[in-house]
Amino acid sequence: MSTATMEPAVLLEEAKRFQTDFQQAREAIGRVIVGQQRTVDAALTAIFCGGNVLLEGVPGLGKTELVKALSRVLDLDFRRIQFTPDLMPADIIGTNIMSSDEAGQYRFEFRKGPIFTQLLLADEINRASPKTQSALLETMQEGSVTTGGVIHQLKQPFFVLATQNPIEQEGTYPLPEAQLDRFLFKVVVPFLNRAELNEVVSRTILKTPVDLPKLLDSERILALRRILDKVVVTDTLRDFACRLVLATHPDSEFATPLVKQFVRWGASPRAAQGLIRASRVRALAEGRPHVAYEDIRQFAVEVLQHRILLNYDGQAEGISLGDVVAECVASLSESM
């Protein structure tokens, strides 16, 4: 039965099946990634609803291993690009080269770059120049690459997981707001606690191989994306997401004291869309064919924090954007 005619009972059955798939994928990745459960959940959620993720954290926290584990569990192609200041757009998307056939005739041939994959790890993306960073914009938004006047479609699902180091900023190019807005989530990856660090070192010493199962594939993921459109979002829940976005704007009636004092500009309309998309995935992951308030709150920080601009006072005071969003969530009433 197609999603266009999907009945409530069928949608509930799909929600239960998705709950099983999501839990199995989470557990399988947990066999490789120690801790970082919220990061894993955010990455899985973004893939299922067609978003991209920006990870901010110090090196060595398992970001590369996370994408590798995702590619194996979801049976998707994987590539990694290490961004450097001298990296050019052609190094990412590919280039046209002149070649000759058996008859000696010359022609231009497009050689695909590493961006032609399904899971792309853009490591330390803020080290590349703005020109190279912008090469990702079309792929993240449209799922295509244009070169030499020809549009090349990327194989779906296509997912970008970009990383940046929050400590070492020398020789880096901060991502502009327009490109940050293309990321569904920005996840601040915390350092490991004592037990988790001991587990990582223990696994390194023992070198125990982990055989990850292939639980899903491209067709199943794309089918799930179509089912997401049928997850029920009531008017009050949609309005709650919109009011949450408006609460990040200092001139809004829903603005909190922190927002009024330290925020220059609030989140964009893409933030409201992102809240709904992420909440639909979480609802299915909980086995429900309808969105609840806790689904919208779940990833509010990850959806909103990179879309808010602090004013001079906020930057000088070192205000945490996560705290700003948390205050907005806590202060917002469920009633209209």
Structural summary, described in words:
- The chain has 336 residues and is of the alpha/beta class.
- Helix content is 46%, strand content 15%.
- The chain has helices spanning 8-30, 37-49, 63-73, 89-93, 130-133, 135-142, 177-180, 194-206, 218-228, 235-246, 257-262, 269-285, 293-298, 300-304, 312-317, 321-331; strands at residues 53-56, 78-82, 94-100, 106-112, 119-123, 144-147, 150-153, 159-164, 185-188, 263-265, 309-310.
- Strand 6 and strand 7 form a beta hairpin.
- The chain is globular.
- 39% of the residues are buried.
- The model has no long low-confidence stretch (mean pLDDT 85).
Indicate the low-confidence ranges by residue numbers. none
Main sheet: which strands, in order across? 2-5-8-1-9
The CATH fourth-level homologous superfamily of the largest domain = P-loop containing nucleotide triphosphate hydrolases
Rounded average pLDDT: 85
Structure summarized in a few sentences:
The protein has 336 residues and is an alpha/beta fold. It has helices spanning 8-30, 37-49, 63-73, 89-93, 130-133, 135-142, 177-180, 194-206, 218-228, 235-246, 257-262, 269-285, 293-298, 300-304, 312-317, 321-331; strands spanning 53-56, 78-82, 94-100, 106-112, 119-123, 144-147, 150-153, 159-164, 185-188, 263-265, 309-310. The strands form four sheets. A five-stranded parallel sheet has the order 2-5-8-1-9.
